[in-house]
Structure formats: structure tokens, C-alpha cells
Amino acid sequence: MAPKKWETQNPSGTKRIIVTKELPGSLWLERLIQADCRVEVCTATDVLEVDEIKAAIGSQCDAALGQLTENWGDALFAALKSAGGTAYSNVAVGYNNVDVAAATKHGIPVGNTPGVLTETTAQMAVALTFAAARRTGEAERFLRAGKYKGWLMTLFLGELLWRKTVGIIGAGRIGATYGRMMVEGHKMNLIYYDLYPNPELEDYIAAYADFLKSRGEEPVICRRADTVEDVLQQADCVSVHTVLDESTHHLINAERLNLMKANAVFVNTSRGPVVDEAALVAHCQKNPNFRAGLDVYEDEPDMKPGLVDLDNVVIVPHIASATRWTREGMATLAASNVAGILSGFPAWNRPDILPFLEEDPPKAAPSIINADELGIPIFKG
Ligand code: DGY
To answer: Which of 8, 138, 150, 231 supports an S-S bond with 167, CB 3.0-4.6 Å?
Structure first.
């Protein structure tokens, strides 16, 4: 393994922070510099191994900003602790790559970046839904290959989702936003499965239904299903928005895919292992009118054999949160988590996280997952 290159910013800072990948924008760096940090950024684009991160932590390191592709487990938190580290933040909202219990055991607060990915990720789920339903990937490949010889009534017939039923599995922030985009934009009925009801979503859609009625239009319906199976059977397109943990590993498997309509669209922008990808490949091979749109993969960056050969699958490389505003926001929130803890601030842990992107941010760490376990006070201002 060739040693990776690291670049130092603000070398005179008294607290040493490592950042395992280059981050977009400049506000994140300003936040760390304001907290008197010397910032060392790895400029390599390949994923860092645990040993490489351990070497970068070295014998003195106050905090780290890491990526969802890295394995932040006991080995790294022990190394960070013994180097005098007191804070870690994932530059992501998801943290299935972080052993939070291990971090807590070593007394290290763990931050994440909620609240700035919601609309961006939901939009990508919408984009994948329609790219799959309207076969844009296949059609573009056909065109680029010089195969278009003129307009044909039968060329690339897809699915019209207008006024059909959208299904959501996991109706948290991103799932509910996707649902609203599909309902409001395409007048679809909505069916969702979640362990908890989402009354805000249900009320919103009820009010939208009243609005449609007031205009003499057919109202839309929103229903919470008792089972994942019910959603899969009823919906014309289904988008998954769960976290990845033991309970959601291979939540979508061969048996459940078989329940879906033969011409349904399935979308995943959550985490790859929520879907049994080999089963999805087999299902798409057997059902040419079934379509999928995927942003995430079970063995990322690899894909299961056969996936890339499928014309009925649209694939993008984990870019659902990749808008400039969101990625700069994620970097700023992650830096603010670490800067806040190093400055002795309380945890904010509120849904309205956008004040941290403004010029004069709250004196708090925006989102600390294990704040309660570590007895970090919650902001009361
Ligand atoms: C996250 O933050 O968890 C997303 O997957 C990044 O796109």
C-alpha cells in the first residue's frame, strides 16, 4: 500500500484534526479554524484502510472527520482515544459504518449530518423512479450507439405513473419527502410501511386531497400499511428509505420481490445491503418489464454479477446526496460537530439544523448520536 498524501491547513492550530477525504466548499474549514484546529486532509480518492487511518491518527490527534466508506470500529476509536481524541463525525447522515457502542465505550462523541440531505436525496429517488419507468438509460445507450433510425410508435414504451400508487418503505424525513414529491407532482396515491406512523405526512396528504376535491378533481389517498408485503403488492413504484441495521439487512429479498407487480419500479437510495442484490438481479432477468433504479450496492463499489448487463436497471454511483449545497452542508455540519465538542459546547440535536450553515451559527454541536449515553448536555437556548 503506497502511503497516502495528506495536506495541512492552518498549521499553527493547537488542536490536530484528521479529515480522511477532501471536502467541498470552505465553510467546514472555517469552522475548524475558528475552533483553533490544525487540519490534515487526505487527498487520495481511494478508500482508506483501518491501518492507514490509525497511522494518520498517530500519537496525538484531537478529532477526526471520516467517511461512510470507512470502518470506524473499536480499533479506530481505541486509537483515537489513546491519541487524546475527543470527537468523531461521519460526513454522512447514515452511520452503519460506525460502531457507536465502541465509540461510547471509549468516551468519544459521534456526529452525523442530518437535515441537509432530505430534498436532495428524495429528488434522486424521484429521478431514478422516472429514469427506470421511462427507460432513459436504455434509450440513451441506444441513441449513442447510433441505432436510432427514426420515430417509431413502439420505441421504448415505458410506464405512466400519473395517478397510480407510490409505495414507501421507511417514511422518515427522506422517505416522506419522496412520497410528497410523487403525490404532489404526479397525483399518486401513497401507501407506506414504517414502524411508526407519520401523522404529519398523512395530514399533509389529507389536506392536499381536500385541495384537489375543492377543484373538482379526484382526491389522492394516503394509507399506512401493516406490512412491507402490503406495500409491495399494492404499489406501482416502491422506494426504500430505511436505515441499515440487522433488522433491515436483506429486507427486500426474492420472496418479497415476487410479490411486486410485474411492471413495477423498485428504487433504492438507502443502503445496498437492505436489498438482496443477487435476488434483485435474478428477478430483473426473469421479469423484463420490472424495472429498478439503484444508487447503492450491497458490496459497494462492486456490483453483483449480471447487474450491469441488465437493461431494465438504472444505476448511479451513490450520488443521491450529491448536490453542491447538500455536500457543502454535510461537510459544514460534520466540522461543526467536531468543533462544537472541542469547544465544550452542548449538543443541538434538533431537527432545524440549518442555522449551522449561517454566518453566526449556534454555540452547539449540531448532531451527536451518543450525546445521552455520554452525558453531553443538550442545548437549551
Ligand atoms: C448518507 O449521508 O448517509 C448518504 O448515503 C450520503 O449520500
So the answer is: 231
